[in-house]
Design brief:
Structural class: mainly alpha
Radius of gyration: 20 Å
Number of strands: 2
Distance between the termini: 66 Å
Strand content: under 5%
Order of helices and strands: EEHHHH
Number of helices: 4
Length: 145
C-alpha cells in the first residue's frame, strides 16, 4: 500500500506513515470489495492513478475515489458552507455546522476528511454563535443608551 499523503510505500497495517507522519485512516485503505475500475475499459486502477494505464483516458473524480472518500468530501463541503453562510445567515450556519459535526463524527473512522469536517464544523459553529452573541450584546447596549 502507498501513503495517500506522500505516496511512499508503507505497510498495510500502518496507522501512521513512517515517512511523513500523517495518520492513515481506514477510509484511506481500499476495502477488499471496493476495487476501482476505469469506466471505459473496466481495467482495475489504483487510487493514485490520474489516467487509465490501459486506455490512457483521464479518470474522473468518481472513478479515482472510494465511497468513503466521497462522503468525506461531502462532509467538508457541509462544514465549509455552514461556516461561510453562517456569517450572513446565522440560523442556516448553525444548522449546517451542527450537521457537519454530527455527520463528521459518525463518519470519522471511514475517512480522514470526515474528521476534518468535524473539526471545521466545531470551529464554524463557535464563530457563528460568538458573532450572534456579540450582535445581541451590541443591540442591548444600544437600547440602554
Amino acid at each position: 500500500m502507498n501513503c495517500p499523503h506522500c505516496h511512499n510505500e508503507i505497510s498495510d497495517s500502518s496507522t501512521f506513515c513512517p515517512n511523513c507522519g500523517q495518520r492513515i485512516s481506514s477510509g484511506d485503505r481500499l476495502p477488499e470489495d471496493e476495487t476501482l475500475h476505469c469506466k471505459s475499459c473496466n481495467h482495475e486502477i489504483s487510487q493514485l492513478t490520474e489516467r487509465c494505464p490501459e486506455c490512457h483516458r483521464k479518470l474522473t473524480f468518481s472513478e479515482r475515489h472510494t465511497k468513503a472518500e466521497k462522503l468525506g468530501y461531502r462532509d467538508l463541503m457541509i462544514a465549509a458552507f455552514g461556516t461561510s453562510f453562517g456569517l450572513i445567515f446565522p440560523l442556516l450556519g448553525i444548522v449546517l455546522n451542527v450537521t457537519a459535526i454530527v455527520i463528521g463524527y459518525l463518519d470519522k473512522e471511514k475517512d480522514s476528511k470526515s474528521y476534518e469536517a468535524f473539526i471545521i464544523g466545531i470551529i464554524g459553529l463557535s464563530m457563528v454563535v460568538f458573532l450572534e452573541v456579540f450582535q445581541i450584546f451590541q443591540m442591548m447596549q444600544n437600547l440602554y443608551k
